[in-house]
Amino acid sequence: MSRKIFVNVCTQDLRRSIDFYTALGFTLVEDFSNEQAACLRLTDSIYVMAVTEGFFTETVTNGVSTSGTQVVLALELGSREEVDEVADKALAAGGEKAKDPMDEGFMYGRSFLDPDGHHWELMWMDAAAA
């Protein structure tokens, strides 16, 4: 059975989030978006739901934390070049570098914070060499 994941991220500025994620290659799914949330498709099984803070607060029971990282979103990509391409797009679109690139030869990664401070890790790994 194929499953989908919808990662919900709280945003202070919905338009900024839409612009940021579409600059990275996500596709806005307008049928599942409104003034409170935007559905952004990365693949047929991975989506980001950028949700306004007010609406996000209504969906959780233990409050919304804005002090520090609560989750790291990790995404495997197809090559070192694709890691660099997506990371560079993120920085150009308003993200900021989270930490220095990691290069272990068989594994390569870069990270960024989106405009709302959500931590993303991009990585490529040569499974055969690992």
UniProtKB/TrEMBL annotation:
Domain of life: Bacteria
Domain VOC positions: 3-125
InterPro entries listed in its UniProt record: Glyas_Bleomycin-R_OHBP_Dase, Glyas_Fos-R_dOase_dom, VOC_core
PANTHER family linked: BLR2408 PROTEIN, BLR2520 PROTEIN
Protein name: VOC domain-containing protein
Lineage: Bacteria, Bacillati, Actinomycetota, Actinomycetes, Jiangellales
